[in-house]
């Protein structure tokens, strides 16, 4: 059990609506608030580029059918890996298949020294990634009990259950297999404290300021002093 769980921004500092989620400014903001790192989403363009994007369509353009140049302003996975190679823990969520060769290669070329995990809702994607690299840290994301049932047979070192699924017994079961639990998306201070008391390894939140202020008030105070 980690005595100091990782604090991660969900799509960066998503609660700050003046800054678009899943962008470099949002990732920077999460780190400025005091988070250890952040979660972000990756999709594949028609010309084989790994693009940071949550939704299948952007500005009316279908990502899977677009060329990367049509999605100007959206960071690539490679850009994120290079920028944060030394400064952040990266939770790289794979939204679609066919990224199984691209992602491990980029991670070999630009290994995040602050740690990382490649996560997905898709068990088949995790299995394909494992075949490409048996040492790649993988995580299964779960929003339902049915999805949670997949974690035992998968080659996953991490489980990312929705906060409504998390119970002490689940955390113990996963930790007994050598795995870690990262809970999402936690935006209530009482929930944040409870999950840390239960022993989760990481907490993901939209509200990165609240997350750090709640779980690391000393860090938040020092950061506020620097801003002033």
Give an overview in words.
- With 228 residues, the protein is of the alpha/beta class.
- It is 33% helix and 21% strand.
- The chain has an eight-stranded parallel β-barrel, surrounded by five helices. Strands 4-5 form a two-stranded antiparallel ribbon.
- Helix 7 crosses helix 8 (208-215) and helix 8 packs across helix 9 (217-227).
- The longest helix is centred in the last third of the chain and has 11 residues, at 217-227.
- The protein starts with 5 loop residues before the first strand and ends with a helix.
- The model has no long low-confidence stretch (mean pLDDT 95).
Q: What is the C-alpha radius of gyration, as a whole number of Å?
A: 17 Å
For the biggest β-sheet, the strand order reads 1-2-6-7-8-9-10-11
| Uncertain residue segments | none
Strand content: 15-25%
Shape: globular
Number of strands: 11
- Helix vs. strand class: alpha/beta
The largest sheet is: 8 strands, parallel, barrel
| Tally of alpha and pi helices | 9
Binned, the helix content reads: 25-40%
Head-to-tail CA distance between termini: 36 Å
Oligomer: single chain
Whole-number average pLDDT?
Answer: 95
Order of helices and strands: EHEEEEHEHEHEHEHEHEHH
